[in-house]
Amino acid sequence: MSKIKLEIEKESMLMAYLFAFFIPFYPNILGVLVLMLWVEQWIRRTPIKKVYVYSQLSWKNPNIWLLLFYVMHLVGMIYTQNMSFAIKDIGMKASFAILPIFFLLYPIRIKWNVFINAFIVGTFLSIIVNFSHSIYLYSEWKEFNAFTGTHISTFMHRGYWSVYLMLAYYFVLQKMISSGDRKTTFWGILGAVVILVMNVFTESKIGMLLFITISVWMGIQLFLMMKNKLILGGIISVFVVGIFVISLFLPTTFERITKAFNESSTSIEQVNKENPSSTESRMMVWDSSIELIKENPVFGVGTGDIKDVLIERNYEKGYVAVAEQKLNCHNQFFNTQLALGMFGTLFLLMSFVTNLFKKSSDTYYSWRVMICVLLFLAILPESMLETQAGIIPFAFLLGILSLIREEPLVEHSNIK
User: Fold this and answer.
1) Angle between the N-to-C axes of helices 342-353 and 365-378, in degrees from 0 to 180, rounded to the nearest 10
2) Using one digit for the tens of pLDDT, what is the confidence trace for 206-227?
3) Pseudo-torsion of CA 177, 371, 119, 211, nearest 10°?
4) In angstroms, what CA-CA distances link 259 with 119, 203, 252?
5) Start-to-end Cα distance in the chain
6) Predicted TM-score (pTM) above 0.85
């Protein structure tokens, strides 16, 4: 018991591992874990050291920008009309204040290997639970669509789950490449294929975009590292064959992507306004959002009024279907710009940019860059920071990543 206690005392962020575990599995519990972060430090009686706090007060610290991003939501209440929605919004986004303040007060010591393993385990548990639920649905419906689309993601929006699936996909492949061990390579490929199949089942377009981004990046790394190009060809062949087989048995995902490309090339006047597809819906809300942004470029329309003005403009432009659905901007930067103006957008953007700064002994810089790229791409077609399933994971990951400093996961080696 004394050894266990000693190990626990050495670690200062046990809740971080639970965060990593639950992000892809059950994000609804993350609000409780935010509170538990503070409780853990209180139990440990961790002192707040002025020297550390002062060292964190830099414009290069992403937590400063995340905190300012939240402050802009408070500022936006000054000129808002719909105060009830504004209060609800700042309450929902409180993690953008609570988590950055926590990271500004307490130094972070976590084992990166344990952190990403917890994320991967949570991902595979979510796959087991979601797939089991789809099996149950199939037993009642006798239809294969029980395994696809919204039916395959039980605890969150399928688009959000696909983002977290792709983060796990990246972690699995990066661990495989970093290891260089053949056993790890085998399990890495197998795990990556399983995650990829589930991502295809979600029929998420952003999930496929992230898959392509990660696969290209991993392919470049493997090409530069591998001495035996035949092995590289074999790995690529496995994924190509896998995608081909999936396309035969589950063509709907690829049809959605093809359809999205075709629809995005059409003009806004040609979209189906009465019964729009998801891509056409985005085109309409983007059109209305851009108009409103041009009319309110500096301070936006206010924290509480964004939905009201967007719905009103959609009705004015004849976009009745999206107005009745009360869709948000479906682009986080549009959403932020429309609600808070240029300063809100700047602060959100800086929380990504400052995560790209490399410091001394920055062992996990390449990991962090790819995570930030994936998170950035994820919020281009979705307003992920308008629901708890997106708010807390983003606030946590963007806040903690730049603070991680540790020895390498494993020694870097070429795959033979």
Assistant:
1) 150
2) 998 999 899 888 878 777 776 6
3) -70
4) 33, 12, 10
5) 43
6) yes
**Lowest mean pLDDT: which of 179-188, 343-352, 362-371?**
179-188
Q: How far apart are CA 321 and CA 309, in angstroms?
A: 16
Q: For tokens 């099996």, what's the residue?
A: 135
Task: Give the integer Cα–Cα distance in Å for 199 and 83.
Answer: 39
Show the tokens assigned to 317: 């432009």
What sign for the dihedral angle of Cα 323, 325, 326, 330? negative
In the 8-state DSSP scheme, what is residue 180? -
Contact 333, 347 (CB under 8 A): no
Token pair 């470049």 is found at 220
Instruction: Provide CB contacts within 8 A for 227, sequence distance 6+.
Output: 414, 415, 416
Tell me 275's DSSP state.
S
Nearest alpha-carbon partner for 253 in 209, 205, 194: 205
Closest among 402, 409, 398 to 70, alpha carbons compared: 398
